[in-house]
Amino acid sequence: MGSTLKRGLMVGLNTTWALGKVIFPVTLIVSILQYTPVLPWLIELITPMMSFLGLSGDAAIPLVIGNFLNLYAAIGAILTLDLTVKEVFIIAVMLSFSHNMLVESSVALKVGVKLWIIVLVRLGLAFISAVVINLVWNGGSEIARYGMVPSKSEEASGWGAILLEGITKAGVGIFQLAIIVIPLMVVVQIMKDKQWLAVFSRWMAPITRALGMKENTSTTMAAGLLIGLAYGAGVMIQAVKEDGVSKKDVTLAFIFLVACHAVVEDTLIFIPLGIPVLPLLLIRLGVAILLTITVAVIWNRADIAKRKEAVYEQ
């Protein structure tokens, strides 16, 4: 058990270091850019489109950063902005569906899923969810309070003060994420060493069947749900090869997983932003189930129709 904890702790520290190298400069740069003409100009340019999603123009910053980099970098950007609880929640839901597109899309390609399907599903879910939440939810107009990040008292004056403010925000942001990431990686390591992923895969079998997939998809689903598309890539690619998962089933699995993956990590990391994370998880899970079942039903009907046509032609 001692070696497991040690390995988990080292993985957690390495992950925090790797993420910190992204979060720190992103938070610092965005914080400094707020005091330059660059950010206000960019915000003014895209505000009309963002208002359609119920967001202010500066909300585009974490959305762009999150999609090109990852959730941690996006959170680093959010920490520098004055946003309402509703805006932060909408951004969190959008980013839950669509983030780290370059890395996570490459994982999908490696297991044989078409790129256009992944991009369309992720961006489509992000934009549709934002429009729906904006129309349905009338609350959340108060300014969000970001965990241990102090609320703004007055504008920083002078480059020294601006730099200090940015460094403080970046440092506090990394510290908060480390509190979540390190214990999480220890738990993941314990799961690996105790073979709990295999047990969870067996539990997943009836669920994968209900979602229109064969039982041999359960390990891929379990790895994606628990570890995520990026960290679980190795396990998932190996599982698809070893378990002989069909093209149809792996596509259905990824349609589910792009909507809902890394359910523990990708939910907990939003806690420092002061938003309700349980509704965030339930939205992701509900959308993933409904979307996957719908696509599976349509796909099965199309297959039946094709088989009937083949019989008639004979």
Automatic annotation (TrEMBL):
Pfam families in UniProt: Gate
Q: Report the domain of life of the source organism.
A: Bacteria
Q: Please state every residue range assigned to the domain named Nucleoside transporter/FeoB GTPase Gate.
A: 18-99, 175-264
Transmembrane regions: 12-35, 115-137, 172-191, 221-240, 252-275, 281-299
Q: Which InterPro entries match?
A: Gate_dom (IPR011642)
Q: What keywords were assigned to this record?
A: Membrane, Transmembrane, Transmembrane helix
Q: What is this protein called?
A: Nucleoside binding-domain containing protein
- Keyword presence, Glycoprotein: no
